[in-house]
Amino acid sequence: MIEGHCLCGAVRVRIGDHDPRVGACHCRMCQRWSGGLFLCFSAKAGEVAVEGPVVRHQSSPFAERAFCGTCGSHLWMRDTKAADADYDLMPGLFDEARDWPLRSEIYTDRALACVRLEGDHRRATRAEWEARNEHLEGDMG
After folding, report:
1. pTM of the predicted model, to two decimals?
2. 114-134 pLDDT, tens per residue?
3. Are 8 and 71 a contacting pair, CB within 8 Å?
4. What residues are paired with 24 via a beta bridge?
5. pLDDT digit string (tens) for 56-105?
6. Is residue 47 part of a domain?
7. Is residue 7 part of a domain?
8. How many CB atoms lie within 10 A of CB 60?
9. CA distance linking residue 8 with residue 81, whole number of Å
10. Nearest to 50, CA basis, from 76, 70, 30, 71
11. How many structural domains is the chain composed of?
């Protein structure tokens, strides 16, 4: 079990089993939300417990993004089409994430010059990712 919290501490997130590897997304939607690069790790819905003033925003026809209603810290992105969908949580909420490796990176051809990532991990361009994920609608690119 790990526990994390937002900047002000009003939202606390406890997680049991999870994948301690980080994924990165460079799509325009994630750039607008994060200011440059969206980083996340996954946990099953049944492993996540949340307390505090969470605000959810339906950011696309298939996903929500959540943030603290007090300080605005980003908390997660989650598929809204499935009730038991995994959480894609912000690693910065958890002290343990400091040592977690990068597992994958998507929309690599859309990366801002200042946040291009190095290393040996899976990568996919916009075309590659969207070809494998036909449910994507709207301007993700």
Report:
1. 0.86
2. 998 989 999 999 888 888 876
3. yes
4. 39, 105
5. 999 988 899 999 999 999 999 999 888 899 999 999 999 999 999 999 99
6. yes
7. yes
8. 18
9. 30
10. 76
11. 1
